[in-house]
Design a protein that fits this description.
six-stranded mixed sheet; flat; alpha/beta
Length: about 1450
Amino acid sequence: MGLLPRTSLLGLLLLLLLLLGQGTTQARTSPGENTLEEQLWPEWQSLKSFPFSCNSKKSGSDVPSNSVHSLSPSDIKLVAAIGNVETPPDSGTDDLEKQEWTEGEEPQACMGVVTVLSDVIRHFNPSVLRPVCSPGKGVVPRNGAEDLWIQAKELVRNMKENQQLDFQNDWKLISVFFSNTSQCHLCPSAQQQRHVTSSMDQLTRMLDYLHQEVPKAFVNLVDLSEALRGSHQGTPLSPTAEPCRCSGETSWLSKVVTQWAYQETWEQLLASSKYNEQKSFAVVFQPFFYETALPPPSGERPLLDPTVLALTLWNSMMEPAGQKDEPFSAKERRPVKCPSQENPYLFTYRNSNYLPSLLKSHAKFEVREGTEIRCPDKDPSDTIPTSVHRLKLADIKVIGALGDSLTAGNGAGSKPGDVLDVLTQYRGLSWSAGGDQNLSSVTTLPNILREFNPSLKGFSVGTGRENSPGAFLNQAVAGARAEDLPVQARRLVDLMKNYTNINFQEDWKLITLFIGGNDLCNVCNDPVRYSPQNFTDNIGKALDILHAEVPRAFVNLVKILEIISLRELYQEKNVSCPKLILRNLCPCVLKFDDNSAELASLIEVNKKYQEGTHQLVESGQYDTREDFTVVVQPFFEEVEMPKTPEGLPDSSFFAPDCFHFSSKAHACAARALWNNMLEPVGQKTRRHKFEDKINIPCPDQVWPFLSTYKNAVQDHGSQLLCSDRAPSASPPTSVHTLRPADIQVVAALGDSLTAGNGIGSKPNDLSDVTTQYRGLSYSSGGDSYLEKVTTLPNILRKFNGNLTGYAVGTGNASDTNAFLNQAVPGTKAKELASQVQTLIQKMKDDHRVNFYEDWKVITVLIGGSDLCDYCTDSNLYSAANFFDHLRNALDILHREVPRALVNLVDFMSPRIMRHVFLGNPDKCPVQQASILCNCVLTPRESSQELARLEAVTRAYQSSMRELVESGRYDTREDFSVVLQPFFYNIQLPILADGRPDVSFFAPDCLHPNQKFHSQLSRALWVNMLEPLGKKTDTLDLTTDIPLPCPAQNEPFLRTPRNSNYTYPTKPSIENWGSDFLCEEWNPSNSVPTSVHELRPADIKVVAALGDSLTTAVGARPSNSSDLPTSWRGLSWSIGGDGDLGTHTTLPNILKKFNPKIFGFSTGTQEETAGLNAAVEGARARDMPAQAQDLMERMKNSPEINLQKDWKLITIFIGTNDLCHYCENKESHSAREYVWHIQQALDVLYEELPRAFVNVVEVMELAGLHQGQGGKCVMPLAAQSNCTCLRGSQENSLEMQELKTVNWDFQSGLSRLSYQYVQREDFAVVVQPFFQNTLVPLNDRGGADLTFFSEDCFHFSERGHAEMATALWNNMLEPVGQKTTSNNFTYSRTKLKCPSPGRPYLCTLRNSRLLQDQAKADPPVLIWAVPVAAGGGLVVGVGTVMAWRALRGRQRENPPLSLNTMSF
C-alpha cells in the first residue's frame, strides 16, 4: 500500500493521534466512529482479502493454557509491540521534511502491524483486547538498545494500567522489532558469532526487564535487518552504521549459507538462554529474510504494507523453531497459515523439539568408498592416434573441466551437519576432475583414468577456488551459469597452453563440461536471460572456443539433470535439510505449488535445455576435424532422487546444504560418466539409480575406443549390453514369468508397414515401394544380425540363438522366407481374422514350431489401411466395426494359441503421414495421393473431412485400449495381450527450412524406411520391458534409444500381472453428447414435394407423442422426495437442451442440419414443452387426443407454415398398456393397442401435410425388469401401479403371457406403414430398434444401471442418448434392413450419416419395398415372418444368455418388488 502524500493531511492525522492518547498508542472506538487504525490505515481492513480458512475450534481447548509451550492463539488476550517498523519513502534522502514525515508515520506502521496481528488472534479469541504499540521516540535514536528498554518500560506501565487486562493471568503476545545497521551478520563463522553475541548483549537489558516484570508472555524477537536493508531507520542496536569487512568469500552461495547460519546462531543462543526456562515466558527469534540473499533493487521497499509484515510474522510463528524456512517476499502475498490439529499452539523452542543444526545429524561421517577396476587391456594405442574416433582411454594425457559448484566440489567432503563447510570447494573429490588419493579410496573420473595412464595431468587436488594452485585444470566456478562458460573456456585454454608439462599440440585431452543448475534455479526471475536458446548459445560459445583452439580433444558435454527431483528432498519432512538455504539457492524450483503453471513451465524449460544441448552437438558442427569431437553424455537426464530402504530421499548423497553433492554422489556420477563414455552413441544410459551400485566396466576388447558419433554402430544396427541372457531354469508355464530367452517363436500380423514395403528402397525409386522387405521389418525381420540390422527378432536372438519364425529377404506373405510374418499390404481390420487363421495353421504345420510347448511373441499392427479408405464408406470403416474386427482376430488367438504374448501396437497417426507427404511436394508423389491413401492425403486442412478423420482415428485408438483393458484376454495363465503404445505420439524431425525430414521414409513418403524401422524396433523392445502404467507412448525419431536389459529383480516381459497394474477405470464422462462426422449437411436444392426424397436438412418442425419416457421423467436425479421431474429438454425424441456436443437427442442431431428447427422441448416446465404433447401415465387410448392437441398447437403457432414446412413426428407408447394388461386383458389387447395408435395416425394423416411419422416399437418390458437382477430397491415415485410386473417371476405363466402380448404389440405396429401410403407427402415408418431389447451390461456382466433413472425403470440421460442414437440410425436404415436391437456401448461416434447414394430418410418406397408389397393382402411385410421367428429366438436365447450371469446372484438378492410404476 502507499503512504498518504501530503504533509498537511499527515499533520491532521498526527493531531488526531495525540488527541486519542499520549505515549503508548492504543486503538479506541466509540459507537458509530472509525477506529484510529481504520482512519490511518484503511488498507488494514483488507485482511479479509487474504485466504484465511483457519478453524478456530481446532486451535485449542476451552481452558486457557498454563504454559507458554502449549499456548494457543485463543489464549492470547493482548497483542503489543515495541520497536520501530517504519519504512521511509526514500531511505537515502536527507530531506528534513521527509524525515519529519517518517517520524510521524512511526506509530502508524507499528499500529498497522499489531492491529493485523490482533485481527488474526480475534479469529480465535473474539475477546482479545485492542492492540498496544510503544514505538521509539526518534528517527535515529541516540542509543537503540536504550530506546527499546524505555519502550519496554512504557509498555509494561500501560499494560498494568489497562483495566480490561488481568496483568498477572492474561497471556500477552509481544513483538520486539530491531535491526542491525552493520552487515556483519552476513559474514561467515567467527565474525558472525561475535556480532550476534554483541547484539544479544545489547538486547539483554530490555529482555531482562520483560522477563522479570511480565508474567504469561510470548515474545517475538523480530529481526528486520534484512527487511529494512538500505534504510537507516528502524530501532538499530547502534546509532550509526558500522563498517564490516567480511573475510573470505562473498558470493551468492556464501551469502545464502551465512544468512542461514546467522538465523541458526540466534536460534541456538535463545534456545539455551534463561528466557526459555520458565513455563510462563518464552522468547522466540523470528527472522525476516529476503527470498534471495541479495538485496532488492535500489528504492524497493517491501514493507510498505504492514499487513504483509504482520502476516509474514504470523506465518513464522506457525512454523516450528529451527524450521522457519520460508523467506520473505515483497512481491507475493502468501496464504495465512493455521495452527494444525496436532500442534495447535505457538511454537517455542521446547515444543518444537529444537536441536541445534550441528547436533541434528547423528549419521556417521561418510567413508569415502573407493573402487577397483581390473581390465585385461590398459595399454595405450601402439602409436599416438590422430583420430579422436580411435582414441583409447590410456591415450588420454590431460584432463580438465568446466562448470559450476557441482564440478567445483562444494561440500563434497563436508561432515554431516556442517553447513558452513559447504562453502569449501573440495575440488580433489570432484566427479569429473578430482584427483585426491587414488581409485581405491576416491572414485573420480581422473582416478579411473589414472589406472590406464598413471601420468595423467590436469586433475585438481585438495580444496580451494578455481584460481588456487590445486585447482589446476578444474576451472569450474561456484555459482556459474551458462553465460559464464566462455570465460572459463578461455581461461582453461590459456592454462593448457602455458603449462610446461602439457604438450598442447600433441597430448590428447579429455574435457568435461557440465552446467545449467543455476540457470534453472533462476529462470523464473529472468526468463529471457535464462531462456533455452540463450542457454544453448552460451554453451555453443564455449565449445566454439575449444573447437577453434584446442587440438586433440574429446569433450564430454554432460546433460543437465532433471532438477525437479530436488523438490522431493525439500518437501520431505522426515529429512533434515536447511530449507532456507535450499529455497534461496533454487527458488524457481522450490517455491511454486506442485500443479502450478510456473512449475510446469520450469519442467518444460528443463526439457528444452536437455534437447538444446543434444541438437547443438548433433548438428555436426564439432565433428569437422578428425582430432576433435563433442559427445553428449546423458546419464543425468533422467536421474532419480536416491532413496533409502524406507523410501525416503537419501540425504547421504548430498552435502549438508542438501543441494550440492556429497563425496558419495560424486563417486556415483564418476561411475555413470565412465559408463556413458564407453556406451555407443544412441545406446547411452539415461537413467540411473544412484542408490544401486554402478559398476565400472572395462572397454570392449574388440572395440576399445571412446564412443563418438562417427564410430558408433553403422547400418542401423544396435548393441545389447546385457550380461544376463539366460532363460528360465525350466520352461515357464505362465506368461507373467516369461523371460526374453524363453521366447522360441516370433510372428507378426498387419498391413504393409509390417510386411516391410519400401524399407530398403533407394531414395528416388518409387516403384520399389511395392517390394516387401520382410527381413527388415521392425517386428518380424531377421536379416543379418543386431549390430547391422535392428529388429525385434534380432534382439531376441541375442537371448535365444534358436529363435524361429522371423522373415528374411523380400517377398509376399505366401513365400517360404516370409515364414510367420503373415502381414499383407492393404489389409483392413476385417481381414485380420483371416491372417490369424493362416498364421495358426502355419505354426501347427511347420516342424520348426512346437505349437503347444513353444512360447510365442506375436506382434499385431492394424488400422492404417482402414483409415485410408474411411471416407469411402464411413459405416463400413466405423470405429465400432474396427473394434469388432480386432476383437474377432484376438479372440481367435486367445482361443486357439497356447503360450503366447501378443503385442498390440498402435498405428501411425494419419496427421504424421499428411505432414510428411504434403510438406515435401518436391520429394513426395503428391499427384498419386488419391491412389496411395485417399482419405488421409486429399482432405484440405481445417476441413470437416479432416476433422472427421482425426475423430475416427481417436475412436480407433480408444477401441484398442478398451479392448485390451476389458481383461478379456487375461483369463488364461499362458496368454496375454499387451498394448504397446510407443507409436501413439510420433515426433518428426524438422529440417532447418521447417519441412519434415523425409529421410525416415520410403520414396512414397508414407512407409517407414529402415532408419525408421530401426527406431520402431528399439521402441517396441523398450515398451515390452516397461511395466504397464509406465510405458513410453512417444517416439522421437531423432532420439538415441538404447536397448535396455531386463531388470535383474524382475527379468520378465511385462504384463498387467507382473507389473502389479490395474487397468484404469473409465474416466468420468462429463456428458452424453455425440460427435457428428457427417458430410451431407445440405437440404434439397428445392423444397421436396415427396416424403420419399426428404433429407434431414429439409425438416423444419419436430414433434412427439407418448408417455413419461417421452417427457423424460427421471432423466436426471431428483433433488427432493417429490414426484420425479420431467426433463423434457433431455427427451430422446423431442428434447433440445444444449447442443449435440452435450446432449444427444433427435432435435439436437437435426440442428446440425437445420439450426432453425422448431418444436423441440427445453427445460422442465410445461411452458417450454414446445411440440412435446406426451403426457406422463399415457396409454395407447390417449394417443388420438394427443394427436388432436398437437394439431391445435401446430395450427396456432405463427412459427409454423402448416402447408409448406416438413414435419417429423415421433410416437412412442405402450409401456403403461403392458404394465396394466393383466388388469383388463381385452381393453389392453394388442388389437386395441394398435387401433388406438391407428386413430392417432388417422388424425395426422387427414389434417397434416408434409409429415414423416416415426412409430417406435415398444420395448420388451419383461426383459427390462428382469435383467436388472433384483438390484433396484429404490421406491418408485410414480402415479399408478405396474400391476403385471409386481411379484412376477421370470418363468411364470403370467410373465410368459406378458412377453407374448409384448411381441404382439411390436408385430402389430409393423403393419401400420402400409396403411398410409396414398399421399406423396406423408409417410409412417415403424422404427424397430427396441424390438429385441437386451439389458445393457457393465464390465462385470451385471446390469448397467447407469442407463436408468433412480426408479430403475425410466431412462437416465444416458439412456435417452442411446435411444436418440438408435432412433436416428433406424431412420437412415432401409425398411427391411433396420437394426432391431440397440448396442449399449458408449461412444460419441455411433451416429450414422446420410450418404451420397442414400441421402434421404428411409421410407417403404425409397427402400424399394412398397411396389412389391402393395399388392399383398393383408399388407404384411414378407420379411416380418422370418424376423419374427428370428427375433423370438434372439429374445428367447439372447436374453437367457445376457441374464444367466445375473441369475447366480438372485438367490442373495430377491427380485425387485415393484410398488408403483408410470411411464
